[in-house]
Each structure stands twice: as structure tokens, then as C-alpha cells.
Amino acid sequence: MKLSITLLLCFFAFNVSAVQKAVTEEGDIVILNGDGTWLYEDDKASRDIEINTNPTVFNKPTNSKFVLKSKKNNSAFALNTKEWAFVKSKSDDAAIEYNLGLKAGDLYGMAITERIEIELEKLVEIAFDNAREAAPDTKVVKKEYRVVNGMKLIYMEMIGTMKGIKFKYMGYYFSDSSGSTQFVVYTGASLVNKYKTEINNLLNGFSVQ
């Protein structure tokens, strides 16, 4: 099953053309990028990063007092409204239930919710595969289990290039009997350190009702 996901399109506002593919003499399928570079389609190196467990216990920041609740599953997202603005989807069937933006910076977030439960490890694979459709050079640079507000989930960082812009995409991936959730933050790769505190504070506001 392939989840609906809009990877960075609302941030970069670019139309992504169909991925060009070719077959080598050895029978391997390769993806051809617009800049003349290519990579093997079955490049599992970044997908198969070992998932270790981070021993740190992550909790909601004390100043994240406003809570957005999903209408599709039990997910909830606490945030500081002095720092963050949000827009709720007008469609009950939209994959992105909430779009978020840092009021004083170029940092963005999305709450992607589904009503169906998906195996956690499979959920992050789907997210990675969908990211590579938009940016074929996308790689997973970090993946780990975390306990956030009492819930075990996966944290994943992906980095890639779209139309010459290097982006970084960081998020929490969670699933239970009420459905699955991808709560993610994204910005230009060079800005991640600048917004490290804001990124962590937003993500750690994730919980279940």
C-alpha cells in the first residue's frame, strides 16, 4: 500500500516531472536525474540503516500548551502558538491534516494522518520510497526508535535535492490501532542547526489522545 504524501511541494512550490528510468547492459534499473547524474533504483543502503534505540526520554515542552487533535486517529500535536502558525485541511480525506509554519523563519511542518494501522518499520519505508519519487537522490541519514511522551515510535531524517535545493526532512512515525501518523518538519539543509530547538520542540509535542 502506498500512502498519500506531499513531500516538500508546499515548501518549494515546484512541479516534479516523472522520473526517467533506464536499464543497463547488466539488467539493473537506474534512475536518470535531470542534471545528468544517475543512481541504481534498488539502492537499499539508506533504507536499510539499522534502527537503534535512543535511551533519552522525550517529553512535551512546557510552553507547548495549544493542542491540535486529529479527527482521523488518536494523534495530537501540542505547540506554542506564539512561535507556530497552522492551517487545518478543509477536506476530511486529505492526507495532510495540518500544515504548520514557524512565524519567524523558514521552517515548516506537516501532520500526515491515516485511519489504517501500518507496521511501524513499513511506514518509514513507504515514506522513504515516496520521498525518492520526488527527489531521487534522497537518503536516510538517521533512523532510531524513541520514546516520546510514553509512546515508542521511529525518528527519521532524510536529505535530498530538488531543483538544485538541498533539503532536510525530519519526523516522527507512529502507528497504532487507531491509524498511522507522520509528524514531520522540513527546511533547507543549511538551516537545520539554526532551527534545532524549534524542530525538537515541535516534534516532541506529538502524543496520542
Overview in brief:
This protein is mainly β. It has helices at residues 9-12, 120-134, 196-203; strands spanning 20-23, 29-32, 38-40, 52-58, 66-69, 75-79, 84-88, 96-102, 108-114, 139-148, 151-162, 165-176, 179-188, 206-208. A hairpin with a 2-residue loop joins strand 12 and strand 13.
Q: How far apart are the first and last residues' alpha carbons, in Å?
A: 26 Å
Output the structural class: mainly beta
Structural domain tally? 1
CATH class: Alpha Beta
Q: What is the tally of helical segments?
A: 3
Would you kindly provide a written description of the structure presented here, covering whatever features stand out?
The protein is globular and about 55 Å long. With 209 residues, it is mainly beta. 13% of the residues lie in helices and 44% in strands. An 8-stranded mixed β-sheet has the order 4-10-11-12-13-9-8-7, with helices on both faces. The chain has a 3-stranded antiparallel β-sheet with strand order 1-2-3, with no helix packed on it. Strands 5-6-14 form a 3-stranded antiparallel β-sheet. The protein has 3 helices and 14 strands. The protein has a single domain (9-208), classed as Protein Transport Mog1p, Chain A (3-Layer(aba) Sandwich), CATH 3.40.1000.
